[in-house]
Inverse folding.
């Protein structure tokens, strides 16, 4: 019996001491696991299987997070923590949240810091399969923030760009069921996973630059990766074929970066593998990534070689030209009166066909060693060697006015920041159409039949004819107008933009009359090119006026192409929907799948397009529905409830 008890004690002691720590020793602070410098936050982090490096599947019994012993979290202590697994290594956009339905809540309560350590023990362990990457999601629900030297408090370490997705705000407490648009980061929290044992072999490094399938990589790149705990060195291999080593063959380095010693070939694919080394040997099973180098110095690096752009007859960018600043040099033209660092400027030119044109930089992507999409452009009149500045634009799209029809104008594009900041982009010259027919409230387009859909291709010509609309507390530009008559049901208004758009609209809904508008609702939660969705509980017979305009209430900024969809879930007198407020479909917009918040009351569902054609019919639907085969656009999900009622919801496929 004594031997048995001793054995049990030894096993328990080993299990209780099992832990894996990532980011040990870092004292750099970040937004993860929660942001202490804002009133509320919701943060998701992805930790790869490689960096966790557990010896087997096992139960995670708790987590530890680290901060300075002198830091306070008194106003940041009400936490909920969720764990889950994913095949993703990074988040692809600022709305690419992992759905709550794919996560498990493992903790809810008040946390405290003891000598700079926040220790969280789960009521029930979480079983980690050691096959997938691990997600930690944390929400902080205490009002108020902790100053701590005007910064966040928790220690973190730099990782792959996009490995963190976060939302932080002093007044908005985000709902993890449907999080707002957030921000991407690369600083993951220093963390200890209690209950897991490390593998006997050292972990594989996660390459942070260049990321797998990256494009526009410099010809002399510096390869970087996450430092691996316990590593005494690393080996780097680069080849022109998968598994090849003809460029670099297991080069030993002592730090977590490596400058390729000789220039790579332009516009070529390379294969990269990095392994960690310690006294026990090398990390095993490390993946090989690939990247393509830049095409080289841009051909339009100087004004004399400016690429001629076709002027589009409308605002829509039917004709665009791809450009990039990586590898470009400073042409020597003065930046003043504009701003930024033109050390990588590239040149374009066009012949004006009107006195005003819209210049747009679409699909802007960071391709330098510094993660930045801050791009700038300057418009000149004259000729190379004798240029006069006409327009400076930090926004990626601007109107240039006062042009002379038939004259040539030059556009210089450059990254706003200095060395290491470079972008790729599509540049387009658009023509401003005449004011649209529905430019004024009195000429609003009437939505007589639901569902109603209208694409405003001539929105760029809209004027601020009524001045700024300030009936609502959050004012806006006067854009284009629509109207409908309320039917007593809920009416959904959804405004979407074409891919690559930089238009940031606001939707204003008003009652009263055009000469005396009364604010009913306004919506401006999306950013550039993102959808705006507003649900309106209507009164039968009341006329509602809808304005879609630029969000700014101070500057008269231009509108751009958008599509408005108006639909109603109006139920007849014989229909009731007691579960209306309980069932939600999210995320919306979605990319691959939707989640249904409560399927217990749902008998069946069908998905249809705006023309009423049924595309999918599902009996006893699960909480997660895969719809990745649908094209981008708006669809209607109809839920047939078990009590005989029904509910219609509008969703948007990105």
């Amino acid at each position: 019996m004594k031997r048995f008890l001793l054995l049990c004690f030894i096993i328990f002691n080993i299990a209780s001491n099992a832990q894996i720590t990532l980011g040990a020793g870092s004292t750099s602070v970040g937004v993860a696991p929660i942001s202490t410098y804002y009133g509320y936050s919701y943060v998701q982090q992805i930790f790869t299987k490689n960096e966790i490096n557990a010896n087997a599947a096992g139960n995670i019994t708790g987590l530890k997070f680290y901060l300075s012993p002198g830091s306070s979290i008194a106003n940041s202590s009400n936490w909920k923590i969720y764990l889950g697994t994913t095949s993703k290594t990074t988040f692809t956009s600022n709305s690419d949240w992992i759905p709550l339905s794919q996560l498990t809540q493992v903790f809810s309560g008040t946390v405290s810091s003891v000598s700079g350590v926040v220790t969280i023990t789960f009521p029930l362990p979480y079983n980690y399969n050691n096959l997938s990457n691990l997600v930690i999601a944390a929400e902080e629900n205490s009002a108020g923030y902790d100053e701590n030297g005007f910064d966040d408090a928790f220690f973190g370490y730099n990782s792959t760009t996009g490995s963190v997705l976060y939302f932080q705000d002093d007044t908005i407490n985000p709902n993890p069921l449907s999080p707002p648009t957030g921000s991407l980061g690369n600083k993951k929290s220093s963390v200890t996973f209690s209950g897991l044992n490390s593998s006997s072999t050292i972990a594989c490094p996660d390459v942070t630059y260049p990321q797998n399938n990256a494009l526009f990589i410099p010809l002399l790149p510096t390869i970087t990766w996450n430092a691996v705990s316990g590593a005494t060195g690393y080996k780097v291999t680069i080849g022109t074929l998968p598994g090849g080593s003809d460029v670099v063959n297991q080069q030993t380095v002592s730090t977590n970066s490596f400058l390729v010693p000789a220039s790579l070939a332009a516009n070529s694919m390379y294969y990269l593998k990095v392994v960690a080394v310690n006294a026990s040997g090398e990390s095993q099973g490390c993946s090989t990534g690939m990247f393509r180098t830049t095409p080289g110095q841009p051909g339009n690096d100087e004004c004399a070689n400016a690429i001629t752009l076709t002027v589009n007859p409308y605002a829509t960018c039917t004709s665009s030209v791809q450009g990039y600043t990586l590898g470009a040099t400073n042409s020597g033209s003065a930046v003043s009166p504009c701003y930024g660092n033109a050390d990588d400027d590239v040149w374009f030119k066009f012949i004006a066909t009107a006195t005003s044109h819209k210049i747009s930089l679409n699909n802007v992507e960071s391709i330098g060693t510094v993660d930045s999409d801050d791009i700038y452009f300057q418009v000149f009149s004259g000729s190379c060697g004798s240029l006069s500045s006409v327009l400076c634009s930090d926004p990626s799209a601007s109107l240039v006015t006062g042009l002379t029809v038939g004259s040539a104008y030059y556009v210089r594009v450059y990254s706003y920041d200095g060395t290491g900041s470079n972008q790729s982009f599509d540049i387009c010259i658009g023509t401003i159409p005449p004011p649209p027919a529905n430019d004024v409230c009195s000429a609003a387009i009437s939505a007589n039949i639901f569902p109603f859909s209208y694409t405003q291709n001539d929105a760029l010509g809209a004027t601020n004819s009524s001045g700024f609309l300030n009936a609502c507390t959050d004012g806006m530009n006067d854009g284009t107008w629509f109207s409908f008559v309320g039917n007593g049901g809920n009416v959904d208004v959804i405004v979407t933009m074409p891919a690559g758009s930089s238009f940031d609209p606001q939707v204003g809904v008003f009652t009263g009359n055009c000469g005396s508008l009364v604010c009913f609702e306004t919506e401006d939660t999306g950013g550039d090119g993102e959808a705006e969705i507003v649900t309106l509980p209507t009164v039968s017979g009341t006329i509602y006026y809808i304005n879609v305009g630029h969000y700014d209430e101070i500057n008269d900024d231009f509108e751009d192409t958008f599509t408005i969809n108006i639909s109603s879930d109006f139920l007849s007198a014989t229909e009731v929907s007691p579960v209306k407020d309980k069932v939600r479909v999210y995320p919306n917009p979605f990319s691959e799948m939707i989640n249904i918040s409560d399927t217990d009351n749902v008998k069946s569902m069908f998905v249809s397009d705006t023309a009423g054609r049924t595309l999918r019919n599902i009996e006893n639907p699960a909480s997660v529905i895969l719809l990745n085969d649908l094209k981008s656009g708006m669809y209607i999900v109809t839920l047939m409830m078990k009590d005989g009622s029904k509910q219609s919801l509008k969703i948007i496929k990105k």
